[in-house]
Design goal:
By secondary structure, the protein is of the alpha/beta class. The chain folds into two domains: 266 residues, 3-Layer(aba) Sandwich (Rossmann fold), CATH 3.40.50; 112 residues, formyl-coa transferase, domain 3 (2-Layer Sandwich), CATH 3.30.1540. Helix content is 37%, strand content 15%. The strands form four sheets. A six-stranded parallel beta sheet has the order 3-2-1-4-5-6. Strand 1, helix 1 and strand 2 form a beta-alpha-beta unit. The longest helix is centred in the middle third of the chain and has 25 residues. It starts with 19 loop residues before the first strand and ends with a helix.
Length: 436
């Protein structure tokens, strides 16, 4: 059981309902608290008086810049309660220590050592509550020669090794355009999973611990599954290829070149994913089926008609032949919409798939059939907004209804007076001092 038992902010029908979490994170750590809150934990998002800086990240509702109208804030803070507290002040630190007594987990994303400087580091919190778990989310972790370096998303992405594989071969490396992508991965792989394991361990031993979540490590770990392994095994250096899938090709004199064919193709109303594959079985059969479709519409060139994809060998293929075939496919795809291509691909057994836009996902039949999208009401905006729903399904039913992200200080009175025992007069004085 959590120290705080069941609070007013919790739903007792969810998996983590007995547990209370204090969320001190900035944008680098929002996702961890969001996922744990979605599982039913009572996550209390602690903001500085006046609101978290993440509220100023757009886009905004009706394009009106407002700390209470940030879609970014909405998306990453659903299901949380919200209070304001300045832990940089001595009074704020004492109040935080009182909150720790009935908490199970603290999530923070300050630079290493910052919580210690405030007198709120893990050793101090552990003396107050020996069962407390502190999850610390940083760019490079709590130890090592890089721990004190600044770690914005682009730096973490570059130093993880992933950037070298992202982008087109004739241009420099790229990074995902999604804001703080490195920390989104860290929020799941390192922070959330690490927190749940620590919570499970505490259930066995009764002991809390600090979880050191490194955004760089969260990206290095999956990256190391293939490219470094190939380098160690046979000296192969995986190349950045963009929309092109590069295959090794043997040229006269034993030299190795690279034969390329697209993996992503432009069509009439967007893009589709299709890889020209060879060999026996479903892979080669997919390329055969697409070729037959082109022939049926009179769009296959003489070279394409002669190719047997079940026996075609990329390693010895002439790049001119590859280019001619690619051009036939390119022109064909441009004449059809994503829906047309997918419908015929399903009939013919072609492994071809539309590249979805966010708008496509909102109406995607698979997501609709699983009841994925959810309408969450925002009374302060006078409307409901469509949100991503629960991130997995279970055979055992539990309440998966979500609630909107908190307003600035929305639950101050609920937490400070009804749960912590402060009087309304004390709360008013703290507000006047800028502590809450």
């Amino acid at each position: 059981m959590g120290h705080g038992g069941t609070s007013m902010g919790q739903n007792t029908e969810n998996m983590l309902s007995p547990y209370r979490i204090l969320d001190l994170t900035n944008a680098n750590g929002y996702l961890c608290g969001k996922l744990l809150a979605g599982l039913g934990a009572d996550v209390i998002k602690i903001e500085t008086p006046g609101g978290d800086p993440g509220r100023n990240i757009g886009p905004f509702f009706h394009d009106i810049p407002d700390p209470e109208k940030s879609f970014y804030w909405f998306g990453f803070n659903t299901d949380k309660r919200g209070i304001t507290l300045d832990i940089e002040t001595s009074e704020g630190q004492e109040i935080f220590k009182r909150l720790i007594r009935n908490a199970d987990i603290v999530i923070e994303s300050f630079p290493p050592g910052h919580m210690d400087k405030l007198g709120l580091g893990y050793p101090v919190l552990r003396r107050i509550n020996q069962r407390i778990i502190m999850t610390s989310i940083t760019g490079f972790g709590q130890t090592g020669p890089y721990k004190d370096y600044k770690a914005p998303d682009i730096v973490v992405w570059a130093l993880s090794g992933n950037a070298i594989l992202t982008g087109d071969p004739d241009r420099g490396p790229l990074k995902p355009t999604f804001h703080n992508f490195s920390y989104v991965v860290a929020g799941v792989l390192q922070a959330t999973i690490g927190t749940l394991i620590a919570l499970y361990y505490r259930g066995i031993t009764g002991k809390g611990q600090q979880v050191d979540a490194s955004a760089q490590l969260s990206l290095v770990w999956p990256f190391n599954a293939e490219p470094p392994g190939l380098l160690i095994e046979d000296g192969t250096i995986v190349k950045r290829s963009g929309r092109i899938y590069l295959r090794p090709q043997v040229r006269p004199g034993g030299k190795t070149a690279w034969a390329g064919a697209p993996m992503l193709w432009q069509c009439k109303d967007g893009d589709i994913a299709f890889s020209i594959m060879t060999g026996l079985g479903q892979q080669g059969a997919s390329s055969v089926a697409l070729t037959q479709w082109l022939e049926s519409e009179g769009k296959a060139g003489e070279t394409l008609k002669k190719i047997d994809w079940t026996r075609f060998v990329w390693e010895t293929a002439n790049q001119e032949i590859v280019d001619e075939v690619v051009e036939d496919f390119r022109k064909f795809f441009l004449e059809h919409t994503k829906a047309e291509l997918l419908e015929e691909a399903e009939k013919r057994g072609i492994m071809l798939y539309p590249v979805h836009t966010p708008k496509d996902n909102l109406s995607f039949s698979q997501l609709e059939s699983r009841g994925y999208w959810e309408e969450i009401h925002h009374p302060e905006l006078g409307c409901s907004i469509t949100y991503p729903g629960f991130f997995f399904k279970t055979s055992a039913a539990f309440d998966k209804r979500h609630r909107r992200a908190p307003l600035i200080g929305e639950h101050n009175e609920e937490v400070y007076t009804k749960e912590l025992g402060l009087s309304k007069e004390e709360l008013l004085v703290l507000k006047q001092k800028g502590v809450v």
